[in-house]
Design brief:
Rossmann fold; 6-stranded parallel β-sheet; about 20% strand; 7-stranded mixed β-sheet; Dihydrodipicolinate Reductase, domain 2; alpha/beta
């Protein structure tokens, strides 16, 4: 594959103290194209990267720079934004005006309905003009658009697991898109690294609880993408749960079948659907996915069952990897003409 850059790729990260940033830095350091960090911006200015993430001691002992999109060096190739929702819309217009290509981890550019965004994020969107430039960053479906994109909206972690599970059946009209239920469990790192009572160890250890049932901001993201894939409106009932482990997501999707199909036929269809997708693995026979098998990888593992007139699809990803950092690198690979798998296997 043609690689248009002959020099080491120069990367800037704004918000470089997030969990996703740690994973992003760790994976980028071993990218075969070679990566240098032109700017690591944070509001923890004055601290070193290795102070916040001791895993980088002796590897990346450089100080953080101010959180200032205008200070990103002109020769930077790509800017990753690992900032809280609603903050990237303050940075993206300035970065795009300077000609940078941007990959945003937040929800600011994922939704195409302004009212839906403002309802679920409880914030007025101040950069709606750039929504048309944004490409949803799921290479399994949108690689051609990602390759040309100036702005990529990196998908949410829950939507990544859910969309990959349901898409083959929705695309082939095998399920009623109004009947989709997503029951998902996530490790505590999905909540970020800010101290909050519900994620304090004595609160979440030895406990599982559902939250934001029918009201989670990832629900309209799933519905939007799956509606486009199905070619008709998809209604999603999404029930997320917090489970007492560090990382990982297991999503179980349920939907009513529109016609009779055997489990073997459905599994073959899903396998064929993802034949050219290097990071989707479909379990064969009676084996079902486990979070342990996808931790610290960019893989999504799928398991397929037919139960009466219902399809059941189990999906496992690492929320910090395929649900965030490594999917962003996969998008970078597509944008810059690298092999999709570079630095991720």
């Amino acid at each position: 594959m043609f690689v248009w850059r002959m020099h080491m790729i120069k990367v800037a990260i704004l918000g470089a103290t997030a969990y996703g940033s740690r994973e992003l830095i760790r994976w980028l350091l071993r990218h075969p194209a070679g990566v240098s960090f032109s700017y690591l911006g944070s509001r923890q200015e004055g601290m070193k990267v290795s102070d916040v993430f001791p895993v980088f001691e002796g590897v990346l002992d450089v100080p953080y720079q101010p959180h200032d999109p205008d200070a990103v060096p002109d020769d930077t190739d790509v800017v990753f934004l690992t900032l809280p929702h609603t903050v990237p819309m303050e940075c993206v217009p300035r970065l795009l005006e300077r000609g940078f290509r941007v990959i945003d981890f937040s929800g600011d550019y994922r939704l195409t309905d302004r009212a839906v965004y403002e309802k679920h994020y409880d914030h007025k969107h101040t950069d709606w003009g750039n929504i048309e430039k944004a490409v949803y960053g799921m290479p399994e479906f949108f690689a051609e658009q990602i390759a040309k994109a100036e702005l990529v909206a990196n998908p949410g972690c829950y939507p990544t697991s859910a969309i990959l599970a349901v898409a083959p059946l929705a695309k082939h009209g095998l399920i009623d898109p109004r009947s989709i239920i997503i029951d998902a469990k996530s490790g505590v790192s999905g909540a970020g690294n800010k101290a909050k009572p519900d994620y304090h160890f004595p609160h979440c250890n030895e406990s599982v609880h559902a939250y934001k049932v029918g009201a989670h901001r990832h629900e309209p993201e799933m519905a939007q993408v799956l509606s486009g894939i199905a070619g008709e409106k998809a209604d999603i009932l999404f029930v997320p749960h917090l489970i007492p482990m560090d990382r990982g997501i297991l999503s179980t999707a349920y939907a009513s079948l529109t016609k009779e199909i055997s489990e073997e036929e459905m599994r073959s269809l899903v396998t064929e659907f993802y034949r050219s997708a290097p990071f989707v693995r479909v379990k064969q026979g009676q084996v079902m996915p486990r979070t342990k098998d996808t931790i610290d990888t960019n893989f999504c593992d799928l398991g397929v069952r037919v139960v009466g007139r219902r399809a059941v699809i189990v999906s496992c990803i690492d929320n910090l990897a395929k649900g965030a950092a490594t999917q962003a690198i996969e998008n970078m690979n597509v944008m810059f003409g690298f092999k999709q798998t570079d630095g991720l296997l």
